[in-house]
């Protein structure tokens, strides 16, 4: 009896302990939520969020820029590396750096002895074919005369029909021989022309009038087809090519003039006129291309120098300019 009473007492104490532990855990779970709610409610009161303040612009949006400048290199239309059109050995140099040449002037000579010999052989072959044609034509006249006599003898009944046909076909054969040799002459003339073109390739001539800026070869040097020989450049007209955003499209026209300066020549100012304006806008960049040409009296300006084109002084351009916009760039 006492054992049963003791176990019941122990069981009651265990239930009381479990109930007490559940009550404590509920209190701890509720405490953070109450604290968080209070913190959330008090946050706006302690740190209010400031409202946006409009930033005042120091420059009004409708005031045009007065310093619209595009910089870039000065270029010329004609400027290239003159290359060898065939293999050979340089036998003579007639132009050097800083020398001025006219269009078509001989600048260098490659060894042409083999080509000259082949060309003379081809010309001799053509002359031989011409002589053969004259011989065949003379023989054809004889055969044609024989055919005429054969026809008259046939009319008189002196010869047979077989002899007449023989004279006829021989006359026709002579005409076909002449046509065959004439075609051979055409082939020989084309071979002769091909060798003449190869001979021209041994003569290095200036493609345009200009200044020799560099020389890449020396006498006696062996060159291959495509090797650079000279760098030749024209000296005028001087130009600048650049692009502008599409917002300026339609505000530049042919002949419009602008001022050009260079940081390397601070004392010089020159005039450039619009030569070309692209009729379309590049969809990839949203820009269009402009080409201007400097006046002939361009002083000490030279191809390759960096220059600045001042577009801000033109009212038609200023109307489209807004502050903070990159006016343009060279391609």
Overview of this protein structure:
It contains 4 helices and 14 strands. It has 331 residues and is an alpha+beta fold. The C terminus is likely disordered.
List keywords for this structure.
single chain; 331 residues; alpha+beta; Elongation Factor Tu (Ef-tu), domain 3; OB fold (Dihydrolipoamide Acetyltransferase, E2P); 3 domains; six-stranded antiparallel sheet; four-stranded antiparallel sheet; 4 helices; elongated; disordered C terminus
How is the topology of this model organized?
Blueprint (H helix, E strand, L loop, with lengths): L1 H45 L22 E5 L5 E5 L4 E6 L6 E2 L4 E5 L2 H44 L4 H41 L1 E3 L4 E6 L6 E2 L4 E6 L5 E7 L11 E6 L2 E13 L9 E8 L11 E5 L4 H4 L13
Antiparallel strand pairs: 1-14, 2-9, 3-5, 3-8, 4-7, 5-6, 7-9, 10-13, 11-12, 11-14, 12-13
Helix pairs in contact: 2-3
Q: Can you count the helices?
A: 4
Rg calc? 48 Å
Q: At the fourth CATH level, what is the homologous superfamily of the largest domain?
A: Efflux pump adaptor protein, beta barrel domain
Structural class: alpha+beta
Low-confidence runs (pLDDT<50, min 5 residues)? Answer: 21-66, 319-331
Strand content: 15-25%
Helix content: 40-55%
> Major sheet, described briefly?
6 strands, antiparallel
Specify the overall morphology: elongated
Q: Mind telling me the CATH class of the largest domain?
A: Mainly Beta
Spatial ordering of strands, largest sheet: 1-14-11-12-13-10
The N- to C-terminal Cα distance equals 110 Å
Annotated CATH topology of the largest domain: Elongation Factor Tu (Ef-tu), domain 3
Instruction: State the CATH architecture of the largest domain.
Output: Beta Barrel
User: How many domains make up the coordinates?
Assistant: 3
Mean pLDDT: 81
Count the beta strands.
14
Can you write the helix and strand succession as a string?
A: HEEEEEHHEEEEEEEEEH
